[in-house]
Each structure stands twice: as structure tokens, then as C-alpha cells.
Amino acid sequence: MKKLGCLTYGIVGLGLMGGSIAKSIRENVLDVQGATGKILGADRNAAALELSLEQHIVDETFCMEKVDVMLSECDFVFVCLYPHATLDFLCTHSAAFKSGSIVTDISGVKALLFENIEKFSREDVDFIPGHPMAGSEKEGFVNSSGGIFKNHNYIIMPVAGVKKENLELFKLLVSTMGFTRIVETDSVTHDSKIAFTSQLCHVIASALVDSAEDTGVTAFGGGSFEDLTRIAMINAPLWTELFLANKKELLAHISSFESSLSKLKNFIQNGDAASLEKTLTEVREKRISMGRIDSVYKA
User: Which GO terms fall under biological process for this protein (predicted)?
Assistant: First the structure.
């Protein structure tokens, strides 16, 4: 197996996530004794490229017009763009990837990629779609951090024919970056589960803030409102694209949530204490059981 510290990594898109991936690789893989690898970065934002060099996170930067040159040198490429931009990039630049390289994305919706995979797949390049389950309500390289991945989940969806040694190398890399649970699944399962655990949560948080009578309500907060609505400080263009790209799955979860909310509303409206307490007890037990899945999904 190739050694992580000897590889050349390419990051396409040095925003919050791309910057955090670059920093994590720098801190955990390349800033160790004996490492000879390097990180190359590409972005349309000249300020992000300049800052990544100033902070010694990347070794060389490329404007997007020169990205093919970068791709030809990289053993491992992370495409850190929005879903549609990711597909466009892979289709446009597939011929530029170094033979034998590993290519991954971090898109939050996978159906689009898998529906078009024949447009950019190559027999001599292993494409391993992935989704790091971490992030921040802040944006841009300036807010990126190599520490945001500690103790988080990483979801991977290997396509058919991926070399076993490259898949193991991928898992080793994300584990070294701080991810403690790697879930291997298919794109359909991914999009369904993510619609619930991520996209629905952002919808609920946004609706809760939208329903607030005034912005001064936080003077009466005790932590619950703040915990529930942190993610409502949302990257609107990104999450609009994610919601619409996964519309079918997300709408199904919204309908289910509306049903549960309506049930609780009726219990409260009717003063049905017995049913309300029974449901809340069941909810508590269900939530506790959700923390017992480590042994099932641990890679």
C-alpha cells in the first residue's frame, strides 16, 4: 500500500471544507517525521489561494484555468464544490487526472453523480464518492480548521471496480484526519439518510427562526433555542441546491415530521397528558438507543 506521507494531494475548492481537509492533511499526515508529500490547491478565489500559501497549508496553488496541470500531478484529489459544480468539474476534467490516482468528492447529495458516472469514470482512476459529516455555520477558507473532523462520521460510496488497496488507503487517510466512524453504503441509502439527519434538520432550524416573533427573543433563551438554531445561520446558495437536488427524499421526511408534530400538537390541544407523557417517554428511549449503533457501523 502507498504511504500517506509520500503522496501529492490536490484540493479543488479551498472554501470551508476544502480548506479544512487541506489543513487536516497538513497537520496529521504531512507535518510528521519522514513525510515527503505535498498539497496542491485550486480555487477561483485568489484571496483563498494566497492565504493558503501564507499559512503554509498548500505548497503550490493553481487558478482554475490551470487546474488540469495540478490534476496531472496528484495521487489523491478532493473535489470540494457544490453538487452540480462537482459533476461539471468531473466531466470537464476527467481526462486530466493522473493515471492510478484516487478521486473523491464531498457533495452532500450523490444521486446526481451516480446517474452520470459514465460521463467521467476512467478505468485507470479510482473514484470513491465520499461525504465528511462535519462542518460549520461559517464559510470560507478563513474559517476552515483541521480540527472540525475529530470524532465525526465519514460516509463513502465506492463505485464498482475500485481497487481494494485504494479503498483501504482512503479509509486510512480519513481515520488519520480524525474521523472515528466510516460508513460504507450506496448512494440511494446515503441520500435518504442524509435527507433526515442533515437536510431536514436545516429545514426545521430555518423554519423555527422564521417563526420567531422578533429577534429579541434570544434574551429569553436558556440554550435550547441556541442549540436548535445554530445551523440556521445557513449558506443559502449551497443548501438551496442540496434541498432541491434531494427533493423527493427530503419531502418524504418533512411529511413524516409534520405528522409527528401534528400528533404532539393534538395531545397538547386536547390536554391529553397520558398520551403526551407516553410519547415523550418513547421519544427519550428512542433517542438514547440512537447512540448505540457504533458497533454496527464502525469500519
Answer: tyrosine biosynthetic process
- Dihedral angle computed from the Cα positions of residues 100, 174, 127 and 67, in that order, rounded to the nearest 10 degrees: -70
User: How many CB atoms are closer than 10 A to CB 167?
Assistant: 16
Beta bridge partners of 11: 41, 78
Residue 195 makes CB contacts below 8 A (sequence gap 6+) with: 246, 249, 250, 252, 253
- How far is 147 from 27, CA to CA, in rounded Å? 9
In the chain, what is the straight-line distance between the N-terminal and C-terminal CA atoms, in Å? 18
State the pLDDT confidence band at 299, using cuts at 50, 70 and 90. Answer: very low
Phi, psi values for residue 151, rounded to 5°: 65, 30
Determine how many CB atoms are found less than 10 A away from the CB of residue 25.
Answer: 26
Contact 25, 177 (CB under 8 A): yes
> What domains, with CATH codes, occur in the chain?
7-185 (3.40.50.720), 190-291 (1.10.3660.10)
Question: Is the pTM for the entire model greater than 0.85?
Answer: yes
Q: Do the Cβ atoms of 40 and 62 come closer than 8 Å?
A: yes
